[in-house]
Amino acid sequence: MSRFFRAGESDSDESDSDYSDELTHSESEDHSDSDSDDSSSDDDDAAKKTGGRGRLFEGSFSDSDSEDDTVRVVRSAKDKRFEEIEQAVTSMINGQKINDWVSVQNEFDRANKGLQKAAGIIAQTGVPKFYIRAVADLEKSIQAALEKEKSSSKKMNASNAKALNSMKQKVKKNNRLYEKEIQEYEKDPENYVEEEVVEEKPKAKKAKKVVVSEDEDGSDVEAADDGFTPVGAGGKSIELNQENIYKKLKEVAEARGKKNTNREDQVRILERLLVVANSPYQKIRVLLGLTSAQFDFAIGASGYMSIPLWKNADKHLNSLLTILEANPDYIIKEDVPEEEETDKDRVPQNGEPVYIQGSLVAFIDRLDDEFTKSLQNIDPHTTDYVDRLKDEVDLYSVIVRSQAYFTRLHLTDSISRTTMRRLEHLYFKPDVVIVAVENATAALLPASVATPNQDSSALIHDLCVFLYKNATSLLRTRAMLCHIYHHALHNRFFVARDMLLMSHLQETIHQADVTTQILHNRAMVQLGLCAFREGMIKEAQTCLQDISGTGRVKELLAQGLSPQRYGAATPEQEKLERQRQLPFHMHINLELLECVYLTCSMLLEIPNMAQAGSNPDNRKKRVISKPFRRMLDYNSRQVFSGPPENTRDHIMGAAKALSNGEWQKSVELINAIKIWELMPEAMKIKEMLGHKIQEEGLRTYLFANASHYSSVGLDQLAKMFDLPLASVISIVSKMVWNEELSASIDQVNNVVVLHHVEPSKVQSLALAFAEKAAGFVEGNEKLLELKTPQQAERPKKGANANKEQATGKQQQQRTMGPRGGRGGRNQFNNGLGNSVRGGRK
After folding, report:
1. Any bridge partners for residue 355, and if so which?
2. Phi-psi region of 753 (alpha: psi -120 to 50; beta: other; left: phi over 0)
3. Do residues 672 and 695 share a domain?
4. Which among 67, 301, 353, 424 could disulfide-bond with 144, CB atoms 3.0 to 4.6 Å apart, if both were Cys?
5. To which protein family does this belong (predicted)?
6. 189 occurs within a structural domain
7. What residues contact residue 356 under an 8 Å CB cut-off, 6+ apart?
């Protein structure tokens, strides 16, 4: 047989076998279909009429029919449109996970186009909830990505970064259209999503196959009335009752901190357990776990707890304190051994208290820290900041309540920590505000815990004295600085100055942590402002010199970040600096601070420059304020000087007028500064400044013109500067006594006789030698300061190695800014020490 016929025979055999298989299969299908459905038999008859071809494809038709019966669904236009949007949303979420912002941008545009196509449907049914959830989460993801990009050393590529920045603007503009829906979603994300799921469930076919009795349905509805039904692994509901309360608490505690733990579910389970708990011991155990779980809650990219979550934690902490106050036999302590039998309820027996392991003071610290973080992240120029600041009374009442609880238990360390927290909420406030806060707290708490207080100074004094006696070294230092700040704020300069000098804090503050150094800087600034208000110009300039003279006032007071050069600070350092920033309501006005510093420098520098004369070498040697000198030189070099526009222009103009003897013009320019209105008793301060300008004008006139006169009449000086004769005599006598002016007073003729004394050759050489020796000493000190950190880095051996290394570390850790010249702190001590020796002026 030929190859051609063999191939045809094999083909026919295969087709026959296929035909027989199909026939057998179709017959079995027909048999099963005829038993089940009459319509299928009609279809079979129609198929028989079509002959063998119908018999051949009968099985495939029956299969397609069966598939249509089970799978095929006729969808409405709404389902089709919403499915398109949901596919785009899913792709958008996947793009966020892999940080592919180009695809996220494309899918976002695609989803919005789908919304436009379904505009008619959305007008009737509303915007899909899955879309609201997606755009709300997308905005948070964009913020997190931008924060990560700022702090990350490795930057994303150009197209991805461009898409991310574009998405920031698009999403911000898009979400304004759905503000109401997004707010509803953010209030309770879980319930918002659950409602959407409940709406979709009746559309699924599988739901029709589940048969639930009416009684079961009713019980399910009642169980879900509170909006949440605990569900465990496999979709089984979790039963919470008295028998398994400790078991569930243990499970939640063991799952805490693990990678895939759902913190929202943990909080909800603990909230249900709190409802189930009925004994004080059970409630205390559940509240301890619930408060910890809320602090562990996912806080997102914002870096702080959300306000509703913070208020829940505050409420639960108050509930815990209420239970502990009502049941004094239950005591929470940190140093308690772990319980062997944690699944049994414990009751006090024979008058012995029940000790429960926990830390209330840690909860207080965390609650206070989260409150501070929220204030740092809220725009202070909005009403949101004011609304958030109103919660400080609730926080303060919790601190006072916990302090009373620790006092009853004689827990000294916990009392010290809560007392310090309480002091940090009060020390920077005026008396009126402190009294209002204390009265509001007394209204919230029982009379046994807090009573109204009308004497704020006595309250601050009592809190600080307790910390002096019982607290650790760090807390004592901080309490002392708070006390000094409070005295300075209320114009008690001499008390604050004496406390600062006797404590010697300025000598050891460089060894403290950064936050304590910031508090020291704030106390020094407030002390300088207090001295200025009291009319002590030299003391004010001495206090402000180390802070205002550095050019880094914002960083030293933790009130912002100055623009840095590229690479001057790493992203980690900038992040730490931002975390240390103080809330806005604790800030000291930096413009007022600069105005006070420059005014004090003007009143000291202008007579000093006049005394140095026209010799440039003498001017360089006698420098009181370098920043003021630089500003004055820059202003003097200007070809054209217009009218003053800001604070600096007014002070520079006043300085020029004072150096030229035009004290009236100087007074007018100083009084024209509007920032003085922010200080209490502004008119009194302006009068004080006018009097000081008259006195310094007289001194400047005598220094500048002494070489041109042999004698000057005192009456003429008094008339020229509008001063009483006694004041003129006093000023001139002091200048003569301090050897600033070579002169004598002729009381008979009422004149000042000026002596022109030229130094001899030996005296001139001695002065030149002394100046060169001083230059050598200063150069050696600078070289020593440059070499000391390098030597400290090398490992040293010997008995003094540890001391030298510790000294080097201390010098490296100084973050207070450069010293204001050689012996900066000694100069500070001498400045305030002179005022001590001179008596109270």
Report:
1. 331
2. beta
3. yes
4. 301
5. Belongs to the eIF-3 subunit C family.
6. yes
7. 281, 284, 285, 288, 330, 331, 332, 333, 336
